[in-house]
Fold this protein.
Amino acid sequence: MTNAIQAGELIQQAISELGKGEKMHASQLLISAVQMEPTSQLAWLWLSRAVATEDERIQCFDQIIAIDPNTEIAIQAQDKLKAILPPNQITPIPNTQGAASGSPQ
């Protein structure tokens, strides 16, 4: 089974867990998915719904934008979050190019 297929299965399980309100378990599944497939925009997008803080959401959107700088949904969501958070509460993530090049984080 390829990493893409395994990651896809983890994403589906995570979506189901989110539907049950199990954010922590969904987050764990999605972290595993992005470790297997770091360029999966879908995994990063769903992870943004499962993480606990706005800062973590911004980091997920950073990863999506690093993969495809033209992803409007991530750009818009990130802009909205950054508009409501004070600049000192936004922690920049280290080099996002690792995700875009396929290297695990």
Summary: The CA atoms of residues 7 and 78 lie 24 Å apart.
